[in-house]
Amino acid sequence: MDKTLNNKAWFLVLPVLVVVAFSAVIPLMTVVNYSVNDTFGNNDFFWAGLEWFEEAVTSDRIHAALGRQILFSAIILAIEVPLGIYIALNMPKQGFWSSLCLVLMALPLLIPFNVVGTIWQIFGRVDIGLLGHTLAALGLDYNYVRDPFAAWATIIVMDVWHWTSLVALLCYAGLQSIPNAFYQAARIDQASRWKVFRYIELPKMQGVLLIAVLLRFMDSFMIYTEPFVVTGGGPGNSTTFLSIDLVKQAVGQFDLGPAAAFSIMYFLVILLVSWVFYTVMTNLDKAEGQ
Amino acid sequence: MALELKGVARVIKGQDHIRPTDLRLEKGTMNVLLGPTLSGKTSLMRLMAGLDVPTAGRIFWNGQDVTGMRVQDRKVAMVYQQFINYPALTVYENIASPLRLAGLSAAEIDRAVRGTAEMLKLTPMLTRKPLELSGGQQQRCALARALVKGAGLVLLDEPLANLDYKLREELRAEIPRIFEESGAIFVYATTEPEEALLLGGNTATLWEGRVTQFGPTPTVYRQPVDATTARVFSDPPMNFMPCVKQGHRLTFGQGVNAPADGAFAALPDGQYLAGFRANHLHLNTHSGQTIELKCRLGVTEITGAETFLHLYHGTDKWVALVEGIHDLPPGAEVSLWLNPAHVYLFDASGRLAAPASYASAA
Amino acid sequence: MAQITLKNLAHSYVANPSGDKDYALKELNHVWQDGGAYALLGASGCGKTTLLNIISGLLRPSHGQVLFGDRDVTQAETAERNIAQVFQFPVVYDTMTVRDNLAFPLRNRGMEASYIKARVDQIAAMIGVEAMLDRKARGLTADAKQKISLGRGMVREDVNAILFDEPLTVIDPLMKWELRTQLKQLHREFRHTMIYVTHDQTEALTFADKVVVMHEGRVVQMGTPEELFETPAHTFVGYFIGSPGMNLLNAEVRGTKAIVNGAEVALGADYGMVSGRTQIGIRPDYAVLNAGSGLPFSVTRVEDVGRHRIVRGQAAGQPMNVILPEGTPVSAEMTHVTLTPDRINVYADDWRVQGGTA
Fold first, then answer.
1. Where are the beta strands (DSSP E) in B247-289?
2. pLDDT tens digit sequence for B209-252
3. What does the pLDDT read at residue A1?
4. What are phi and psi of B218, to 5 degrees?
5. Closest approach of chain A CAs to the CA of C240, in angstroms?
6. Per-residue pLDDT averaged across C325-348, rounded?
7. What CATH code would you report for C4-11+23-235?
8. Cα angle C86, C91, C94; round to 5
9. Which residue in B197, B217, B302 is closest to C226 by CB distance?
10. CA-angle at B331, arms to B326 and B336, nearest 5°
């Protein structure tokens, strides 16, 4: 019955397939190749099997980086999601102030990652930075170059500053789709502010919130540029997250094999966590519909 | 020119959205798709338009197989329940837009736009933007855009549902005239039996993805082929009660007898379902209302010159539409009278066994 | 429960209204009796939703007062007014069960659990949702959701009034019958004051004891369905109620006679001299086609509406509709139309003129 359908349409997909192959599939295969071989340059490869993988799995250094990474993602999610929701709930719904808010909120999202890093790197400096200098003047012992706690605090505040807008804007879009009648009905039902949030706003935001959490998890789990610019992974290794560690290994030490194995596992972990997260959330959604 | 569906069906994930359907719509006819929400009206329209491809069957346009042909390559126009216009363009430009796409000359476009605007009484609003117009005018604009390109098939999906009652009445009276002038095949989906009757033409009744009957609108209304069609095509809903035929006698409900004459005489003895419409129940007997039915009254609704009585007859819930104002107390026992000529008999499977004799006479 | 009084009420959405046209709701005085079933009928933009929102407290009027009983609630919050409202589109809390939805307004008011359970069961039985009490509200059909919205409105016994804002818009015709009768039964049982806003004359007339017809921000008539049908106070009411609406013929009125394009029509009352733009109004139901008496009539189109036919045509050169009973054929001999004298209303500048005894 599909005879009259236009099968030529498939040819239109071909250029995309070629581009994807060159931009994603082939580089990925190269990494796979590196991960199971040993090389000393000159394109001489020696079969290494799963050696690099074993090394990566048992490496204390990677374990430490993974721990820091999980802690970092957990902290920024715990701050950005509730804060984003809170901001979205309190944004004006229409008129001039709403437009102004939207523009202000969008600003941090438009700044390139390395610029964000540079801004905070300068902002936090004790000698010339406004933040660092003020804190120091107030008598606080703040120095992100020496103190691991200050370094973490700076990076977290920077990430919150950079990305909370995304969560807020997505939630705001979800809130805008709620018809006014729902709020009116809730007033008539004498629902408390919390109940309005719990039974009207949260269910309507659920979809976009899922996307927001997923995006923020993936992004934060792969974070590289901003902490690299601000702290370079230090002091010591205290802000060396997975991707910074990976680059140190691959570029700094030229351990291409272990780095390749490491990045494949890294990629699979993100894929797996995202998939589990997405499936659980959507199934939760379906189960509620029963 | 004709649109023909042969065994067209659409099954999605094992669910029948449209069951195998044969339908032939002739040039210059108004065809109403009547059925409740989710009965398949929109699905069927999308198949006719070519927006969806049937999972079985073939669609022919003027005898040529167009199954799977893209909607852009067919001469089809569609109007939706929502008033869809280009908000940034004037009414004139809105109407002109399909012609501009077709690359017509400015003079041709101007002639067509002005002609169509005149037909839809939009001439005074040509320079305005759609959002400055009333709902009725916005929908006229959408209608004009659909008609201006001279499409052979115009599909209207509940176009008046979002309009006020009175506006709906006005536009509804105009649509048959507009359609006569255009000469295209019109397909009009609605949930309201009254709308189908007012539009005239042909009606296809739909129920759970199945076309239960297709024919001239008054015929489908007065001679439904089964109880489902009768139910879909009655507002207020059709009333039903059990009926037994034995020899020359029909026994209705709780033991009310009537002679089985006319078409009823030839029926085999057995159990039937008797159906009749609300306006055929009377509070008194004028002429020929020989069946007396004792009912308990629920609520009454007065509409000005007429009264709706909500009745309980045994376990059956009925509605009667009677002339005059009758403010009767709820719970009262009342007698209603029915002429056997207004009774349809359906067999156990719901098929029409014998039509109401008044309908075959008309 | 309480009587609701509107005193010199008016509303404008403009900050400094300069004239009548700036008022979405022109000044009105009105009393809604305790326990009455009222309908507010009018076209979109006639001010009926504005009025409803003022009563429910979602909007503060720019002039006048709203009294519940003797209490001035003009500035009171919605929650304080103790009213219930059912909206055009069903409002249900998707993530709650149907039971929790119905219990919600009671729980928020801190009622006892045993009372809530009994009351919810009672309401559920009345609106026919017992079978679905323990499932989530998400995914229910539009009419089931609207039933729940309705149930949530009914669940509090002490509400001052229940307001309906076009509640049957999204409901299929066959389901409308069921919901409408349910509403009517609920009113009979509980005697809540109910105010029902709609543009649909059938819904308004069938639901209400008293219908308030609004036109361009003004109440043009309030009356029983019968009064609105038989003696519309304004030509708009004549046009808006009835399907098709009342026929209006330009005429000269002299005492007990009207002259329509030279032809004489007998009237049911003595109107003396009527000045201004005069018209006579006759319902299509009360015009009879015949072979030779009355006004000359020419048929343009006949519509079969099932239970009757609508004959559209021209009477003495003016458009006119006539209703024929089902089964009556339209013959070529039908060249004239007679109008039942005591069903004719006379209008001067759109307002009805009261006739004296003939």
1. 249-252, 256-259, 270-276, 281-282
2. 999 999 999 999 999 999 999 999 998 889 999 999 988 888 98
3. 40
4. -65, -30
5. 28
6. 88
7. 3.40.50.300
8. 150
9. B302
10. 55
The CATH homologous superfamily to which domain C243-353 belongs is Nucleic acid-binding proteins (2.40.50.140)
Fold of domain B236-361: OB fold (Dihydrolipoamide Acetyltransferase, E2P) (2.40.50)
ipTM score assigned to the predicted complex: 0.85
Domain regions of chain B by residue span? 2-225, 236-361
Q: Would you state the pLDDT for residue A287?
A: 56
- The alpha carbon of residue A90 is apart from the nearest alpha carbon of chain C, in Å, by 20
- Specify the amino acid at residue B201: G
Strands C295-304 and C336-339: antiparallel
Report whether CATH 3.40.1350.10 matches the domain B2-225.
no
C153: closest CA of chain A, how far (Å): 9
Domain ranges of chain A: 61-289
* C-contacting chains (≥3 CB pairs under 8 Å): A, B
Residue in this structure with the two tokens 């509303």, named with its chain if needed: C11
- B295 Cβ contact list (under 8 Å, min separation 6): B311, B312, B313, B318, B333, B334, B335, B336
The alpha carbon of residue B191 is apart from the nearest alpha carbon of chain C, in Å, by 7
Is B286 strand, coil or helix? coil
B169, B279, B362 member nearest C243 (Cβ):
B169
Interface of C with A (CB under 8 A): 56, 58, 77-79, 83-85, 87-89, 91, 93-96, 104-105, 108-109, 135-136, 138-139, 149, 152
Annotated domain spans of chain C: 4-11+23-235, 243-353
**Residue-wise pLDDT tens digits, C228-285:** 999 999 999 999 998 889 999 999 998 899 999 888 899 989 998 888 899 999 999 9
Chain-chain contact of C77 with A187 (C-beta, under 8 angstroms): yes
Take residue A279 and report the two structure tokens written for it.
């499936």
> Residue B361: which pLDDT band, with cuts at 50, 70 and 90?
low
CATH superfamily of A61-289: MetI-like (1.10.3720.10)
Same topology, domains B2-225 and B236-361? Answer is: no
